[in-house]
Amino acid sequence: MTANPRSDARPTLLIAGGGIAGMTAAHELHRHFAITLIERNRRLGGKCRSWLDPEAQVPVEHGWRFFNATYHNLFDTLRRIPFGAGRSVFDNLRRKRQRPGIYVPALLKRHAPFRARDLWEAGRDAIRLLRILGWSDERIRRFHATDLFETHLARPGRKNLVHGLIRDFLGIIWSTDKSGFDVQVTRNMLDNFVVNRLRLFNLNGPTSDTFIEPWRRHLEDRGVEILAGARLSALRGDGGARVGSAAWVDDASSDVHERSFDYYLSAIPNDALLTVLGSDLLDAAGELRSIDRFERAWQNGVMVYTRSRQDLRMNSFHEHPWKITVVSQAEHWGVDHDFSRYGTGDSVGTIADVLSYVVTDWNAVGPATGKIARDCSPDEIYEELCFASEADPAVVANFDRRDHVAFPSPAGARRCVVDESLRYGTKGSRIVANEDTVVTCPPGTFHAMPRAETPIRNLFLASTYCFNAFGCCATMEGANETGRRAAGALLRAVGSDERVPVFDGKRAGLVMRLLLARRRRDARRLGAANAGGSIPA
Q1: I need a labelling partner for 170 at 20 to 30 A (CA). Which of 108, 110, 236, 431 fits?
Q2: Based on the structure, what is the number of domains in the chain?
Q3: Residue 63 structural domain
């Protein structure tokens, strides 16, 4: 074991995990702790990172980094990350161009034709939806904790127009969970993405260029020691209910390092945390074993490069078994982004757009290939994505595979670039591992999310499986909020009077204020019922 080399008088802190949650905690705590941050990937940012493919020299951006107007916590952080003289990363956000004249007709066409009875029932469903949005957290916890949202709107043999529109509208997020969301999570999604100021923003370039790397440099400038390419292998107990040391492996050299710290913050996935905690620590904090109830979904990107700008009308291929969403990066990065610098050889100067597909269900059989996604080679994945795009032209209006750019490689022409987190076997035809998954909350687990503090006195948690008011699966806002909550808990642990602000994201908008008032009234009615009255409907 190597002793901590710092001579700093501040308490030492190890942050395991360099995604949004871990970087947020480091951002809030660097003045109070001597921080070492380790990240298994060579790049920080976790699921939000982007990179330049070393072979094809093209940008790889996993999906769409959208920023909702309700991202109060994250926006506050962005404003405090410098980006050149007098600017911050927040200045790299641009308002997403809304196109209701295209989007709304495409949305309605998907659910046509309408009959008089369909529209009548849609009105009844809308009233039912408003009633659900007005339920208090206490009511959901007591009576609807394990209810699927679909059971309150989707009814067999009926059109269920409102339910279908909600699924379409939230398609990018809804696709992360195969079993469907429960009432609490869906209500939170509707709060944050529909009811509470639906205004969206995008970064004006690849995420790592415009957000993650400037943030990394800022943390390093503030004295945070960042060890990238270091995989946490063990958290060892000290004989009591405390972590005594941490061990990690350097991926480049395979060297093993072990060091003692005063405090430890885990910002790694829940399944990874369970593998590194020693049995003595799990025995001391048995409740941590329950974090395995939070499932992990494969939600990985496949990039296709085109010679012309793509015209996207919608973002989801709902009927495809792979549960595919797609975005045009040129639409989000803006007309000023220079695509001409990408590519190699003859492809330089020919790329005008990136179609970033995200496949969620890698265990479903694709109709074009007749194979599950994880058993497909990159060429087979490409063929299935083309099939989906051609079968549902309402999504990409000008899709044409003849417009796609292929790149030479030792194994033949590459027609797409698959997320580097997906590891292929020796023959290159089947995916054997996925190093980047996202957390999902099976029905009923929202209220079981752990807090930042744990029974292990010097171990704290920050990740999207931890409690956050945003409460909407794996989002940047949720990750940022959990990093703030963990930072606040650590400051309390060392007796600091400083507080880390946490915004609940539900303060703006008249409709949201009315709904919150209704929820408070509902909670009071339930309280009155507990005092001896009947439980109101």
Answers
A1: 431
A2: 3
A3: 12-95+206-294+443-493
